[in-house]
Amino acid sequence: MRLILLGPPGAGKGTQAQRLVERHGIVQLSTGDMLRAAVAAGTEIGKKAKAVMDAGQLVSDDIVIGIVADRIDEPDAKRGFALDGFPRTIAQADALEKMLTEKGLKLDAVIEFKVDETKLVDRIVKRAKETEAAGLPVRKDDNPEVFAKRLQEFAALTAALSPFYRERGLLHTVDGMAPVDEVTDAIAAILKETAAV
Ligand code: AMP
User: Mean pLDDT throughout 151-180?
Assistant: First the structure.
C-alpha cells in the first residue's frame, strides 16, 4: 500500500499515518520528522534546513526529494508507506512520480484532509501544550506566528497538488475536522474502495 496524506499543517495527517502504520504494517514517511532528526543530529542537511523550518518556510525541493528517494529504498518501506508532508510542491510531486515509475511502483491513493483553516491555529496551540505537559520538546514552528506562515506556504504551493492528483484519478477526500476515529474509518473505506487493502 502506497499512500500520500495531503493537507495543511495541523490537519491530522500524522495521527492518521500512525494508525495506518499500526493497522497495515506500512511505514510513515514524514519529511518533517526526517528533517527534524537531521537538525537534531546536526547533519549538513539539518544545518541547511534549520533556519528555513524555524521560519515556517519550505526546505528546497532538492533536499527533500533526496531524503525521500533514499528512504523509500530502505527495506522497511517495501511493504508500503504513507507519505506525510511530502510532496508539498508540484516539483516534488513530479519527482515522486518519476521515482516510483522507475521502480515500477504505483500510488494507491492520495488522501486529502479538508479542514477549516481558521480552526487549525487552536489545534496547533493545543498540540504544543500537550507536548509540553508530556515533558517533550515543543516544536519551534508550532506557535501562532510561524504557523500562519506555514499555512501561507500550503496555500501558495501545496494546494496545487489536489488538482494534480485529481487529474490522475488518485484523489480522495476526508473531513479532517471530524473526530479522529471517524477520519480513520473514512480512510479505511477509501482503502477498501481503491482495493489498496
Ligand atoms: P511538517 O512536520 O510536515 O509540518 O514539516 C515541518 C517543516 O519541515 C515545514 O514547515 C518545512 O519547513 C519542512 N518540510 C517538511 N516537509 C517538507 C517538504 N516536503 N518540502 C519542503 N519542506 C518540508
Answer: 97
Which residue has cell 510532496?
87
Q: Residue 100 is placed in which grid cell? A: 516510483
What domains does the chain contain, in order, with CATH numbers? 2-116+161-193 (3.40.50.300)
Nearest-CA residue for ligand 1 atom 8 is 32
Residue-by-residue DSSP string for 83-136: EES---SHHHHHHHHHHHHHHT----EEEEEE--HHHHHHHHHHHHHHHHHTTP
DSSP E strand stretches across 50-176: 81-84, 109-114, 171-175
The closest-lying atom of ligand 1 relative to the alpha carbon of residue 68 is: 19
pTM metric for this prediction: 0.94
Q: Which atom of ligand 1 is nearest to the CA of 84?
A: 3
- Measure 12 CA to ligand 1 centroid, in angstroms: 15
